[in-house]
Request: fold
Amino acid sequence: MPHVLVLNASYEPLGVVPLRRALVLVLENKAMCLEESGAYMHSATCTVPAPSVVRLKRFVRVPYRGPVPLTRRALFARDGGRCMYCGGVATSVDHVIPKSRGGQHAWENVVASCRRCNHVKADRHLVEIGWRLRHKPAPPTGLAWRIIGTGHRDPRWLPYLQPFGADEALARIEGISA
Ligand SMILES: [Zn+2]
Reply:
């Protein structure tokens, strides 16, 4: 099922919902469709264009959002799908300071890695093998990341995500698909 980007009345991206849920928001007059996907939804009585981006009609106060959740998908997006040691295609998650040696499972200590580097590095510190990271790992920032971390994507969303850090995210997405 396709997903739909939901914006607050202020145009701040709130999240991604399944198409059916977005359609209910529109039909209940709680949201307006800003972009159509080009597809149509058929019910017994009517046919409506499927939305791709909707905007809530009333502003919703969003409680403080903690750091972007550390998921495999979000991590691969942050690192452009590339191994942070050799630049090859990443297939695994590596703890820079190995967990067995007290390393945390946190944005600052995890990187995307290829299987070979992960295997060669094993449970050693970088200084022990003379390796360096291509970038210093840090938690992603910007609301666009919360959307990208879901793994759902639609080119129609981009203009709405650009003010929220999507350009950096985009460059990384292109890194993945390249
Ligand atoms: Zn590698």
In short: Residues 83, 85-86, 88, 113-114, 116-117 surround zinc ion (CB under 6 Å). Helices lie at 19-27, 72-78, 115-121, 126-129, 143-148, 158-161, 166-177.
